[in-house]
Amino acid sequence: MPNGIKHFCNIQKIFQYFLFRVQKRRRRLMGLYDEGFSRNLPHSSTVTMTNNFQVVGNFKLNIMMFKREIILNLNKYMIFKFQSSFVPKHEPVQLSDAITLEHFIKEHKRILVLTGAGISTESGIPDYRSANVGLYATSKSRPVIYQQFISNPEVRVRYWARNYIGWPRFSSMLPNYAHTFLKKLEDKNKIVHIITQNVDNLHTKAGSKNVLELHGTAYVVHCLICDYFINRHQFQNVLSKLNPQVFISDIYSVKPDGDVELTPEQIGGFKIPKCPKCEGNLLIPRIVFFGDNIPKERVQTVNDFVEVCDSLLVMGSSLFVYSGYRIVLNTKSANKPVAVVNIGPTRADDCVDIKIEAKFGEILPLINL
Ligand SMILES: [Zn+2]
């Protein structure tokens, strides 16, 4: 057979193959759609939607509902196929929950947002307290206590060795759907401010401008004796020059504060620099460590936000840490509504107005802003 015809046949085969794949995908999608419509949805949602389709006849509404249906069913498929190892076990998202959250967002114009470690699990950073997948459930190591860090040089060496190894992976984490969603809300002037308990900088990476890092940031290192500070990326270079023998591989699983687990042998001989300004030995990330207190001015700023907001939306926090729980209590004391989206119980379940358990990547695509 001449070469030209051979090539033509090959191209035709490739085209047929892709056509087959596209048709198969469409069939599967429609199958999922039909199945979900009759079987997986709560009864009330099905009835409402059927009424919408048949009686209301609002074309735009129907398209919106159809889009939601497709997303709902794709979500179920994705849960089955790609369960993230850091997202706690959860039920498929309910359409009624998505509608409740959408109403909450639409009803309010000055929402104060509080985010915790649960918002970053879909970016590949574990949280602290979730069952089976959180740091406390999967590891015996605990975050360094502030008093240990400042009083014990060995703790500081161990801390920085682990932080040095974990940094390339931790700093390469990217924002997920939830961070981007909040950026869109900010662009629509719906948000007074985002307060985050996380130190991972993912809200800023997503482009949000009004972010208060309640527990500080892992992206700046400062001296506890003088006013010297340095960008964490630059500090990595300093550590790297001091420790050329230390090899960083990509096999470590990183923790919410950028920490990784190392054996004493791996830590042995690790060197940490002195402060170049005061020669002191207390360089520390600008993070509020466990056992340390949030600066008073920051607490006051949070109180000011509570005063000017018209509602509070908590995303991905068990509110176990009092600094976050206090924001909920203060908002409720001011008679303002509070909605919580978190997989698993929270400390404030009894006092909040709305509690939804859902994965952000599944519920947020259902919200029409
Ligand atoms: Zn200093």
UniProtKB/TrEMBL annotation:
GO terms for cellular component: mitochondrial matrix. It comes from the Eukaryota. Zn(2+) binds at C223, C226, C275, C278. This is Sirtuin family,Sirtuin family, catalytic core domain,DHS-like NAD/FAD-binding domain. One of its GO terms (molecular function) is metal ion binding. The active site is at H215. The keyword Zinc applies. The keyword Metal-binding applies. PANTHER family: NAD-DEPENDENT PROTEIN DEACYLASE SIRTUIN-5, MITOCHONDRIAL-RELATED (PTHR11085:SF10). Residues 88-369 form the Deacetylase sirtuin-type domain. Keywords: Metal-binding, NAD, Transferase, Zinc. It holds the Pfam family SIR2. It comes from Cinara cedri.
